[in-house]
Amino acid sequence: MKIHVLIVAVLGVATLAQAQTGQTSQQTTASKVVLKKIKTEKSSAGTITFYEDASNTGVIHATDPVNYPFYPPVMGLHHPTWANCGIYLKTIDARMALHSLEHGALWVTFKPTTEARKLAFLQTLVKGNPYRLMSLEARQTADVVLTVWGVQLVVSTWDEKAIKDFADQYTNGPTTPEPGAPCSGGVKP
Fold this sequence. Notes:
alpha/beta
């Protein structure tokens, strides 16, 4: 009986200490990714920005929440399981999408207000390519964004040829950390 009372007392003190400091046993702190712009280039479809991972977290897997500086993110901490490439008309876990980017995927994101004709073109761009991924991303500022590992095209002018050129140049392109790694066999988000 005395042992049980002692355990309850110790647990009570620990709980009180956590409450006073604002901590709980269920609280998790999100990891933060810090990116640095290396350069920007103009495209007839918008601005292409190149980034480096200033926090050196790119190869680290994380199942806990991650704070990215913007959406969609271009690199950094990512989930141990990648998202299968394909077309998703919903928001997907950015950490899983980033793992796909590490394997060479192009991630095409759009806002809920994107015009049907643009969505149709983007679906054609993604469909049938085993290294392309498309999903909704309401948190982005532009209507359409194309992202690969470390590089992002923010579309400000609708130019289908320039969008396709970017997709063709960077899908499994020069910034891919693990070229040829699968974009299937992960999970369907």
